[in-house]
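User: Before I run my own analysis I want an independent prediction to cross-check against. Here's the chain; please return only the structure tokens and, at the end, one sentence I can use as a sanity check.
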Amino acid sequence: MPEDEFGRRDPSTLAPADYDRWYCTPYISSIALQIKQVLPGADVRVIRRVAEGEGAILTRVRTLLWLVTFASLLAAALAVGASSAASVIERRTEIGLMKALGAGSGTVGFLLVAEQLLLALAGGGLGLRAGHSAGSSGGPENFWRSAGVFTCCTCCDYRPRRDRHATRERDTLAASLAL
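Assistant: Structure tokens:
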């Protein structure tokens, strides 16, 4: 995360709530402080040029992801519109028959929109279920444990348990830094 003015502030001058927010935000200075707390003998220094370069890259990637998201939404809207138009063209005779039997344009339009909404809800429900299944198969606990991230302050929502693997990884990291 690119460091802003809040991230550059001296943590000793922050109020407890602001300190918790600063500590839990992945600012390079807060990460350096956390490393220094875990490994008291280590010489921890922040190299601002590298951190700012990485922050600029992350900002560009985030912008690119938003552009891709909006392009995907536009493509989906065009696909739904094309599908709706094709459905109306295919059902010309049915629509004509309904109008001949006395159905108004509003009734015909309501039936077409109701059909599209039903299909959208069914597709959205299936997509939600598939995404939930795919996302929960590895589980967030496995993700955070493999990433080596352990939260320890009041503002973080997720607190993975520290098991023997995490302790062994931390001890290995401490031993390699001591060399």
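Sanity check: The chain is about 75% helix and 0% strand.
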